[in-house]
Amino acid sequence: MLPRYYWITEMNGYGRAYREWLRIPDWAPLPFYGDHGVLISSYLVEHELHNNNKVFFTFSRSRYQALKASVNNKKIVRIPCPWIMYRRKKNISSRLFNKIKPF
Questions:
Q1: Helix or strand or coil: residue 7?
Q2: Among the listed residues 12, 77, 76, 70, the one whose alpha carbon sits nearest the alpha carbon of residue 38
Q3: Is residue 76 helix, strand or coil?
Q4: Engineering a disulfide at 66: which of 30, 42, 79, 81 sits with its beta carbon 3.0 to 4.6 angstroms away?
């Protein structure tokens, strides 16, 4: 397995979802940087801004619009949330989640 160059994109199960959606093998590093949770901030933090990658994935409409207007050194791409992509690819119905009671 090769090192995970953009480790933040691998967090919270997003790496697995991205790999399924884009058909990237587990041994290959993901070739982009992106959100690693639900974020509404209108800026990129230091590690997001200063890395060698030229592409940044976000799945928030408002964040996308703000970043597109303010970030010049990266291509900002809006995508569906990785968990939603994974659920759709695996045909997991949202009705299943409605039946789950946390307590």
A1: helix
A2: 12
A3: strand
A4: 42
